[in-house]
Amino acid sequence: MTERTTEATQRTAARIAGWTLLLLMASGFTGMFAFGGNPIVDGDVAATAQNILAHERAFRGSLACEILMLDCDVVLALALYALLKPVNGTLALLGSFWRIANAGVLAVGVAASLVALDLFSNPNYMSLLNGSQLHPTALIFFDLHDRLSLMGLMSFCLGAGVHSWLLYRSRYIPRIISGLYLFACLEMFLCCFTFLIFPRTREVLDPAFVVPDALAELSAALWLAIKGVRLPTSTRESSSELVI
């Protein structure tokens, strides 16, 4: 009875993980394209302020999409833990902690961008800071968002890497999908680590370095949402898999 309950929980968790991952990706891409590009112009505070203020609603919409994406990541972390706990509970929990850490770090980054936006548009800040200091201060908060995004992405890579390894080991989904996911996490983590040491490399590799992960996540999300997972349903099946 307990075994059947566990399997039912895993199947439900797999569907939730798949649909949540699809929603996460949709909100993430919507946020990326809602503004139509990076509003930050290096070395030009006035141009940056003009870009953002001219499309303030779109910029706020992109931040709202990012918040939705982070909320989805928390749900996804719990769903993947429920799915992968029978494989290795400790690693499944570690992966979920890393995913939630990513969400927390990026949430601080979103808050920093909201503060920066207020510095550009809220006249009340004029009484707190000299007018000539407002826009440069706002850029510092935007830069903080960018740095936190990189840190959060590294935590995401670690969490997703652990979960993709457990998916690969369990054979719950085709190994070509979980293997691609694992490769994408390793590739993206190495790129982020490189960006920290050699910042200029980001100008060359960004945003192409996230393409393998996008393909892997989309494949995994569609499989989990539509096909679900293949669980061993009998002792005979489990034994035959061990022999193979």
Give a short overview:
The protein is an all-alpha fold and about 240 residues long.
Describe the structure.
- There is one protein chain.
- The protein has 9 helices and no strands.
- It is 82% helix and 0% strand.
- With 244 residues, it is mainly α.
- Helix 1 crosses helix 8 (211-227) and helix 6 packs antiparallel against helix 8 (211-227).
- It starts with a helix and ends with a helix.
Secondary structure layout plus pairing:
Layout: H1 2-34, H2 45-54, H3 56-84, H4 89-121, H5 131-170, H6 175-197, H7 201-205, H8 211-227, H9 235-243
Helix pairs in contact: 1-3, 1-8, 3-4, 4-5, 5-6, 6-8
Tag the structure with descriptive keywords.
disordered C terminus; elongated; 244 residues; 82% helix; mainly alpha; 9 helices
Helix/strand/pairing class, anyone?
A: mainly alpha
Secondary-structure element order, as H and E?
A: HHHHHHHHH
By DSSP, the count of extended strands is 0
Cα separation of the termini: 28 Å
Number of helices: 9
Uncertain spans, ≥5 residues at pLDDT below 50? 234-244
Estimated radius of gyration: 21 Å
**Helical percent range?**
over 70%
Overall morphology: elongated
Strand content: under 5%
**Main β-sheet description:** none
What is the residue-mean pLDDT, rounded to a whole number? 84
